[in-house]
Write a structure and sequence with these properties.
Length: 481
Amino acid sequence: MRVATRSTPRGEEDDRHDDDQHTTTHGHDDSQHEGDIQPLAGQGFIIGQWVRSDRRRYRLGLCARPGFCDWFGLRTRLGLPIRSCRRGILIGRRYRLPAGDAELPARIERGSTVRAFPHGHESSKPMGRRPGIPYRGHVTFSPPLVIAHRGASGYRAEHTRSAYLLAFEQGADAVEPDLVATKDRVLVIRHENEISGSTDVASLPQFADRRTTKLIDGQTLTGWFTEDFTWAELATLGATERLPRVRPDNTQFPAEGILRLVDLLELLEVAPLNAVGGRIGMVAEIKHATYFASIGLPLDELFAAELIAAGWSDDDRLTVECFEETALRQIRERGIRARYVFLMDAEGAPADQVAKWGTDARSFESYLTTEGMAALAQSVDGISVDKFILQKMDTSGSAAGAALVARAHAAGLSVFCWTLRAENMFLVKELRLGVSARRFGDWLTEFLELMSMGVDGVFSDQPDLAIEARRVLLDTAGDPK
């Protein structure tokens, strides 16, 4: 991997303080260089090569865990001004990379390396606060990614063109489409393959005879299913707001059609940069893979074929997630280079495990042990959990999320959580304001509590609010009281 590094731009010189004031400067170097980012064995990691400036100020990409700097170009977006001091490396105006046992040289030469440590590592000690300098101890260096859940679905009907375009506008780091298949093997973007709640199909008399009952992943559902339609037929449907009582404003916009995966890929190719100047990524969720395979529509094959045709089979912006490990493995075996994330529900068991083992299938909960995470790390890059798993209280009465995140990070897994929503209906009781389910409650408190657990990313129906919470988190992280 390569990361662009740059000496600090003009205009940032006036925040020099204390430990590096004794340095004599001899001009300013605005040249750009590149340095290698390399994983480091053990708990630490190398953050690349440092570029020397005559003002002893540096800029480079940061990553919090081995491999994490790949997520959506995070390695380039987290450039911060760097300066050396007697006790380590100062990042921006707030954080420190400890120097470890070795003393730093008087000047960090170009090409030298510095070891950093994850949050909580014994070598990562708070720097403490000094007068006039807003140092705030050590934090996890990578702020959480904000992934627009089905687009900006809190403000537009989910999975519509307008929902994705609004997510782009709000600065989301990535968007999340749910993928299901049609009868003629086209991948379409719907929350479920049963579409009576998210389209106007039930109101169209020409499709009345398609209503049926099916068993999907152990659940009996009655309605209309994508696999019983061709793409040409689905293209005649209108997408509707799935939660009209909670989000009535979303019903006031002009009707839109259903999107295919290829439609979203085209939108991403021309999307603006996200809130921190990076390219917007895609976190594609593969839905009901075992079921679709059982009816002759293998989603791994269809997904790989469409990515290859669109030039997305080796794209840094791609992440694939699924509640079934089998589907993730099959997609990887088809040569799709991506980050792979295993989704976990608060209860139950993965559908592929149930199909194979029946009542002996292992539960989602069993994957969250130290041993379970170590095994997962051999096949996936991260996990994505229901927020209620993180909010669940342990025996001491504290939220168990931080400990879970720490276990996952120790195993080498990134951690995401879903879904951050602002309405009272989706918040814990203590954070609801008033009695209306649709009213926004104290969403900021919940968003901050989840982000403060050290998660690497969050899925949100209101990406603008999640981005605001992230800004607050970074502004206040570790501030000693």
